[in-house]
Design brief:
heterodimer; A: about 210 residues; mainly alpha; two-stranded antiparallel sheet; 13 helices; 2 strands; about 55% helix; about 5% strand; B: about 325 residues; alpha+beta; Immunoglobulin-like; four-stranded antiparallel beta sheet
């Protein structure tokens, strides 16, 4: 059964390492999530140093695992669930992806996330899930998701924008920046962030947002 | 951004009063900030009203535009970063409220499922164009343009916790360097550990709870620089937590808002912001702006912070008391 922590875990809780994970109280989500395919893929690439090259595949795999489980959507908004996933189901992946030494753990926020939209893009599991959740419903979803993960800076800039919480704006941003390089992508995002102060973007439909930044 | 410079007509927030009828277990922190006493268990509905001063229409639209009041709609925008939720609700006018001073009254309800929300929710009333008008210099005439907005009201779903420094625990224990007198532990709440192997007289002084006025004054005066340093360490940690992962000066990567930090660093960042920048309404925006630019961030950490923490910890006041009473 998949779980979530009763209380959000802080960096201080993990400062002494991962040995005391059992001391944190957990609750059931009510569904089983099968991480076998995610784990198998990880094992097949675990010796590969080019970690970013696999973001797209991991993003697809975590989304498929969670979608198939019929998990109540409310848990995807809850960092306590993502913390449990990172610390219990994909811990080895997190260590590998961020080159973290288990004996001297740093970058603990990669397991925990933090508050805010940035927090979800820092947590190693939710950062993979949300882009797939937003894009794979689109007609050319896989291609958009691949493009999204093609540049680290692009992924960071889009995911960490407060506007990207709105799925329509997120999809529009990815579509409008498809094929663009880092600098062009940043320009588009800066433009949209500036427009946010005088245009009610949440009310607009996707094509209208794309036309604003294209 | 520290301040939005507008090159077009925009109604002042004083003309949009956003109020909500808070459920009984909501407490007021200040005019714009509210908190639930405990996290609600069941779904809740919050009634929100917006009072708009119609005089704004004389300035926010071109003179040639007739009937601008029918070219706009009123919305409640809500954003909760910590819950990854944002959206809007359209206000409906309450025509039963007649106001002779030229104000219109609007109402809406915001449904909140507490199982989907964490941290706080920002609420803002917006006046938005619902159709295009001919372009005119100095005016926003496109559909979806925001012609005016209220101040942001924040409501904490997870109860707001205060931190003023007095919550910091002080205890004697082992510190990581034997020659050091103290060490700050970044726990929740933070803890100040005084070296248990420090000279006995120092420990005796710091533990002193007697009635000698002179001893109390000396103890407080000698301890105060430690408090100053502890504040600086906490502040540095809070600023570090707000700094984006990728060190970048572009506006595409956002600096974390203090509200998105874990307790007590959220409160510490807010205190630092208000102490450094003054005006509570723009202090956090100014802090975020400066953190986002490396040069300004270094200036803040290396030059402003060491001074500001002295003020927060009231170093001068404590030294003044000590010198008045002992330096005769």
């Amino acid at each position: 059964m998949s779980k979530y922590y009763k209380k959000k875990i802080s960096e201080f809780d993990l400062e002494q390492g991962f040995n005391n994970l059992d001391s944190f109280e957990i609750l059931d989500t009510g569904v089983e999530i099968d991480f076998d395919e995610f784990t198998s893929y990880f094992q097949s690439v675990a010796n590969d140093d080019s970690v970013t090259a696999h973001d797209f595949n991991f993003s697809m795999l975590i989304y498929e695992a969670i979608s198939k489980s019929k998990l109540d959507k409310k848990f995807t908004h809850d960092l306590r669930f993502w913390q449990w996933i990172c610390l219990n189901k994909i811990k080895e992946y997190c260590l590998w992806r961020w080159k973290i030494d288990e004996e001297m753990p740093k970058k603990l926020n990669r397991f925990l996330g933090s508050g805010g939209v940035t927090g979800f893009s820092i947590n190693s599991a939710s950062r993979l899930y949300f882009p797939a959740d937003g894009l794979l419903k689109e007609h050319d979803g896989e291609s958009l998701l691949k493009d999204f993960w093609s540049l680290t800076q692009k992924e960071l800039s889009i995911s960490q924008s407060r506007l990207s919480i709105n799925p329509k704006i997120f999809v529009a941003l990815v579509k409008a920046t498809k094929g663009l390089n880092t600098s062009e992508t940043n320009k588009a995002i800066v433009k949209l962030n500036l427009l946010d102060s005088n245009t009610f973007l949440d009310l607009m439909d996707e094509s209208e947002i794309i036309s604003l930044i294209s | 951004m520290a301040q939005i410079l507008r090159f077009y007509k925009h109604a002042d927030s004083n003309n949009f009063l956003l109020n909500f009828k808070a459920p009984i277990d909501v407490n007021r922190i200040n005019d714009d900030t509210f908190t639930f006493a405990s996290k609600p268990i069941k779904k809740i509905s919050i009634k929100i009203d917006l009072v708009v001063n119609t005089k704004i229409f004389e300035s926010i639209a071109p003179e040639i535009e007739m009937d601008v009041e029918n070219s706009v709609d009123y919305y409640l925008s809500y954003v909760s970063d910590a819950s990854r939720q944002r959206g809007f609700v359209k206000f409906k006018e309450n025509l039963s409220k007649v106001d002779l001073s030229g104000k219109r009254h609007f109402e809406c309800e915001l449904e909140i499922d507490p199982s989907m929300y964490f941290g706080s929710i920002d609420l803002k009333g917006l006046l938005v164009r619902n159709k295009d008008f001919k372009k005119r210099k100095g005016f926003l005439t496109s559909k979806y343009s925001i012609l005016g907005s209220s101040t942001t009201k924040k409501i904490y779903i997870d109860p707001f916790k205060k931190f003023d420094g007095s919550d910091m625990e002080v205890e004697f224990g082992k510190v990581s360097r034997s020659g050091a007198l103290y060490q700050l532990q970044h726990s929740n709440p933070p803890k100040l550990i005084i070296n248990k192997d420090a000279p006995e007289k120092i420990k005796e002084m710091l533990k002193y709870k007697g009635t000698s006025k002179t001893k109390n004054i000396i103890r407080d005066a000698l301890f105060r620089p430690i408090v100053v340093d502890a504040w600086e360490q906490l502040a540095r940690k809070a600023l570090e937590k707000m700094t984006p992962i990728e060190d970048s000066s572009d506006f595409g990567v956002e600096v974390l808002d203090p509200e998105n930090l874990e307790f007590p660093y959220d409160r510490i960042a807010n205190i630092i912001a208000k102490s450094v920048y003054g005006d509570p309404k723009s202090a956090v925006d100014n802090l975020k702006h400066d953190i986002g630019i490396q040069k300004k961030r270094l200036e803040l950490i290396n030059e402003k912070l060491p001074m500001v923490v002295q003020e927060i910890a009231e170093l001068t006041e404590v030294y003044n008391k000590a010198s008045k009473n002992t330096w005769k």
